[in-house]
Amino acid sequence: MQGIGEGVRRAFPIVLGYVPVGFAFGVLALKSGIPAWGALAMSLFVFAGSGQLIAVGLIGGGAPLASVVLTTFVVNLRHLLMSAALAPRLRDWGLLRQALFSAEMTDETFAVHVSTLRGEADDPSRAAVFACNVTAHAAWVGGSALGVFCSTLVADVRPLGLDYALAAMFIALLLPQCRSRAHLFAALVAGACSVGFALSGAGRWNVMLATVCAATLVSLLPVGKTSTTREEMGTPGGEGGAHAD
Question: What's the family (predicted)?
Answer without folding.
Answer: Belongs to the AzlC family.
